[in-house]
Amino acid sequence: MANKKIAVLPGDGIGQEIADGAIKVLEVIAKRFGHSFTFEKGLIGGCAIDQTGSPLPEETIALCKNSDAVLMGAVGGPKWDLGTVRPEQGLLAIRKELNLFANLRPVTVFKSLQQASTLKEEVIDGVDILIVRELTGGLYFGKPSERRENGQVVVDTLYYTKEEMERIIKKAFDLARLRNKKVTSVDKANVLESSRMWRETANEIAKDYPDVELNHMLVDNCAMQLVRDPRQFDVIVTENLFGDILSDEAAMLTGSLGMLPSASLTDNGPGLYEPVHGSAPDIAGQNKANPLAMILSSAMMIRYSFEMLEEADKIEQAVSEVLANGLRTGDIADDKTKSLATTDEMIEAVISHL
After folding, report:
1. Please, what are the averages of pLDDT over each run of 10 residues along the chain (354 residues)?
2. Which of 227, 249, 280, 353 is deepest in the core (most CB within 10 A)?
3. Cα–Cα distance measured from residue 92 to residue 100, given in angstroms and rounded to the nearest whole number
4. pTM, two decimal places
5. Catalytic site residues?
6. In whole angstroms, what is the distance from residue 156 CA to residue 218 CA?
C-alpha cells in the first residue's frame, strides 16, 4: 500500500472542473489497488494574483516541495492580459522552484479519434511519439532579456550549460530504452552555436547507449516531417524554444489539444503533471470542458512519480474504451456524434470503466 501526498493546483478557467475530475478518478484507483492518496489544493496563476498579488505564492511553493507530486490545471485568461503581473509568470516560476528541467509530452493518436485530425488517417495511424523538451534554460530564461535605446533595440539571450544539455539528453535516451529505442535530437546546428554544442553533446551521450539509435534533425525539417511522416519518430529531444513549438504542432496530429497530457520532471523532488491545453475561460463553469487530458496527466503522474504501472495502464485503457464507445465532448465531436457529453458525464464514464 502506497501513501502519497498530491498537491493540486487547479489554476484558472476550467482548471477547477478538470482537477476535481482527476481527483475522483485517482480516488477510484486508490480504493481498487489499496493505496492512500491525500490531496491538498494550492493557488497558482490568475486566481493567485487576485487573492495574494502573486502568481505563485510562497505557500504554494512550500506545498509543492512537501508533496510527492503536483497535479496542475491551466493558468491564464484575458482578465489578466494587460497586467504587469501575469499568470504565466507563476508557471515559469514553479518550474524553476522545483527544478523541472524535463518536459514530457506523449502524442498518441487514438484510433477512434483519427477522423478528428486534419491529416489523412493513413498518415497518423499508429502514431506514438514522446517529445522530451528542456524546460529551464534557453531563450525563456537567459539574461539579459530587455529593450534598449529607448525601446528601439531588443535583446534576448539563449544561454545553456553543457550540464543542462547532458541531463535532458540522457533523460531522452533512458526513456527511449523503455520504448522503441530511437532518439531524434532536434537542433539548428547549421546556424546556432548552441545547437552545435547540443549536437556534440548528443553524440557523446549516445556512446553510452549502444542499443539506442540516434538521429539528428534540423528543427525546420522536423516541423515538416511531423506532418509528412510522423510515424518515423519515437522519442524527440530538443531545447526549450524548439520543444515548445514542435510539441504544440505534434499535438494537432491527434486533432485536439484537449486530449494531451504532459509531465515535467526533475532528478530529485516532485514532478508536475498538467494537460497541454489552456484554461478555456470562455467555457469555464459550463460543464463543457474535456477532462481527458487532465485524467491522462494523472495517469502519467502515478506512472512516473509513483511507479504504479498497472494502475496507470488501467486509467489509459478506460479513456480509450470511453472514446471507442463514442462519447465526445464538444472539442472532439464530429458529424457522427449523436449527443455531446458534459464534463461530469465524461468523468463518470471513465470511472465506470475503472
Report:
1. 93 95 98 96 97 97 98 94 90 91 93 85 93 94 94 96 97 94 98 98 98 98 97 98 94 81 93 93 94 96 94 96 91 78 96 96
2. 280
3. 10
4. 0.88
5. 140, 188, 220, 244, 248
6. 22
